[in-house]
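Continuing from the previous page of notes. For each protein in this section, the sequence appears first, followed by its structure tokens. Read the first protein now.
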Amino acid sequence: MGLVLTATCEGCGFQQPDLRLGATHAQIAQHDVCHRDLYRASCCNRVQSVLLYLGQPLPEVACEGCGQALVLTAETRYRIATMKGEVLEGHACPGCGSQTLSFQQTGKFV
């Protein structure tokens, strides 16, 4: 089951709702073939949910804000879901760059 998150920065007031992280029940039934992860879109100072396929190279995707190629790297990925649990606070804000971006769960998707 996937999470619906809202990103908020206490430093600059950045806010972005309806971000999807994880997978649907149907995707999980395919034995974790694909899932959604969050990346920083530096071109538009926003967060974007990207569909990834396990065992495949990172896809070439366009920024939802401006259409430029989105840079998908370990540095632009928000590492939220970890083996130790969810890390919801202390991320780099796409707006101001400070480590004050946090994610709040606002729902789930199945």
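Done with the first. The second protein uses the same format. Note its length before scrolling.
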Amino acid sequence: MTNFDKNQFSDRRVFISSNKKQYYQMFHFTQEKDGSIYASWPDFPNTSWLFPVVDGDGIPKMGVIDFAEEGKLSIHGTGMGTFRSHNNPNNRPAIIKGNKLLDLGKGESGARHLFTAFMKEPVFLPNSPALNRQSDYLINNSKKTGPFVIVFFAIPQTGKGLKLSFQTSFHIDDVDIPPRGGWGVISLKFHDVFWYVYNTHNMEKWPKKYQVVFHDGFIVPIIIGTGLGQFRLEFRTPKYLLKDNSLTVEF
């Protein structure tokens, strides 16, 4: 169980430490007045976007879109998810309607999965160093950083000091015992972004491209290593349980 971060900002850079010797930037999150959350990362054009597709025989397979432009992932307050180019905002190769983040008119907000990413090795050092801004967020890693997958959820803020319990499971053949991973919370303007990091077997090398998948916010895509340079996608349906000031997310 983890306590929610009380530092609320509409713009946050996310860094990771490696052996606590160097801090590399991984992500940049912003949340707008309408509740929309935007995410980007260094070398954004070098991203493979993963989507489930069904072939002519009705067999589900994994589709890939390579998007060689600077841009951002947009999860709108209305629930629509897409990624788009900075130079051409109308260039949105994939649009998925899903669970809304915020409806100020109705006074409603929602919890949802944002995206899952199998990361390239973090190497980016911005001109403004890590922790140079009050809004900077650091994921501490006492060991040398190895390949990992990170999953992001958006949890509505309640002002009551929520405590979060996150429960997930893997097949015993896919992970070490205990599993390697960690978690934490990044507070934005209206939502707290919960992150969960894990590593499975057959993830000994960093991918050459970011492998990123988002869906409708209800379904959680999980990346599982199956061999060198190979992996499979699992799609899980989470359960949310709010009791008093404790929220449990289970999938």
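What the second structure shows: The longest strand covers residues 22-31. The chain has a mean pLDDT of 88. We return to this in next week's lecture.
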